[in-house]
Amino acid sequence: MPDAHQGDPRRRVPRTDAILADPLVAEAISRHGRDRVKQAVGTAQQQVRDGALTPDDVVNATLAALPLHRSSLTPVLNATGVVIHTNVGRAPLSTAAVEAIADAAGYVDVELDLETGQRSRRGRGLLAALLRRVPDAEAALVVNNGAAALVLATTALAAGKEVVVSRGEMVEIGDGFRLPDLIASTGARLREVGTTNRTTIADYEDALGTDTGCILKVHPSNFRVEGFTAQVPVEQLASLGPPVVHDIGSGLLSPDPLLPDEPDATTALRAGAAVVTASGDKLLGGPQAGILLGRADEVERIRRHPLARAVRADKLALAALEATVTGPPAPVTAYLHADPDQLRTRCERLAAATPPELNATIIQTHGVVGGGGAPGLTLPSWAVSLPEDCAARLRTQPRPVLARVDRGRCLVDLRCIPPDADHLVAEAISQLP
């Protein structure tokens, strides 16, 4: 008797080993791993048994069920005009930094001297590069983020003692983390001087004593106090005796005429700061890292503290930061200094390629530094203006475009879009109608 189920497509479900041998599926295994792909295969096979798929669709269904990227992080196109955007990863890495990460992904001589076969200073190439960029520093140290650099410095220099700081610099650095809480975690005691808007050299002098571990100066970063104000420059603080730790925040190694009010490491050290702490993933344009530069004795004291081991930077960050310091200008630098006329030309081309039903126009606008850098500074720019609801729809495209909403319009600012990616923004917009 013929099998009554012989024509049932569920009896023709491809075997798992046959599906896994398909060239496209085999490539997916190299990206996502065998177990993850097998799970997707099993789901597709069950859909065939349920009649939702044909046997010929199993491979395509398997591939469609796998994520486009190797992690849950989704690459986005930053069309907000905010250069250092914390919510999308702050500074985008340069090509050189990305290549350096790939080179460092395997075994590397991160703490090994290949000539002698002996252990060597971790990240020595990066440290030497930082000292070449900032000759006023006698020594350098790199840890895993800017807050860690500040905590490590104050722990090593003032644990069990007092950290003298102006009340006008008792800042919150983001996500609810406040300077008083960070310093308290080090075992040091905060000695607040002056007032929110005015602190004088006499305020510091009155607070100094045998219990003083260091004087801390913190750049306010993401806010400004204007009007009846006074603060003490590093030069005067350095004359008081205790070491001055200057947290400059955004990672500017030398002055930039575009950012006249942003402190930089070179100027702070020349003014007498014993130690400067900064972030690597903001104005410097590198990976998340904390940088300490300063006098050799103070930096060595910090390096030898037990906490330094807990906050050290990994080999990937060291490699990316070295490539950032030694290589061509990082994307952040190019975005900050973007030519407004060129931005307008690019916006005109984008608007011309936009479907007419979206009523695209170009408008003059401004970008900002972001990431707590240069508060109040605006960067002249241009944007393509679209209906407000386009912002949400652009975020859900296969390659999300992050625009901003202003006064009821969706603004697509190309400042932080590489010119060779303009077509990707145009393609995303073309899918909106």
Structural topology:
Layout (H helix, E strand, L loop, with lengths): L15 H5 L2 H10 L1 H16 L8 H8 L11 E2 L16 H10 L19 H10 L5 E5 L2 H13 L3 E5 L5 E3 L2 E2 H6 L4 E5 L7 H7 L4 E7 L15 H5 L5 E6 L15 H6 L4 E5 L10 E5 L1 H8 L3 H4 L4 H12 L4 H6 L3 H13 L8 E10 L2 E15 L2 H6 L5 E2 L1 E3 L2 E5 L8 H9 L3
Parallel strand pairs: 1-13, 3-6, 3-7, 7-8, 8-9
Antiparallel strand pairs: 2-10, 4-5, 9-10, 11-12, 12-15, 14-15
Overview of the structural elements:
By secondary structure, the chain is α/β, with parallel strands linked by helices. The protein folds into three domains: 9-65, no CATH class; 77-88 and 333-430, Aspartate Aminotransferase, domain 1 (Alpha-Beta Complex); 95-328, Aspartate Aminotransferase, domain 2 (3-Layer(aba) Sandwich). 36% of the residues lie in helices and 18% in strands. The chain has helices at residues 16-20, 23-32, 34-49, 58-65, 95-104, 124-133, 146-158, 179-184, 201-207, 234-238, 265-270, 296-303, 307-310, 315-326, 331-336, 340-352, 390-395, 422-430, and strands spanning 77-78, 139-143, 162-166, 172-174, 177-178, 189-193, 212-218, 244-249, 275-279, 290-294, 361-370, 373-387, 401-402, 404-406, 409-413. The strands form four sheets. A seven-stranded mixed β-sheet has the order 2-10-9-8-7-3-6, with helices on both faces. A four-stranded antiparallel β-sheet has the order 11-12-15-14, with helices on one face. Strands 1-13 form a two-stranded parallel sheet. α11 links the parallel β8 (244-249) and β9 (275-279). α6 runs parallel beside α14 (315-326) and α7 (146-158) crosses α12. The longest helix has 16 residues, at 34-49. It is globular and about 90 Å long.
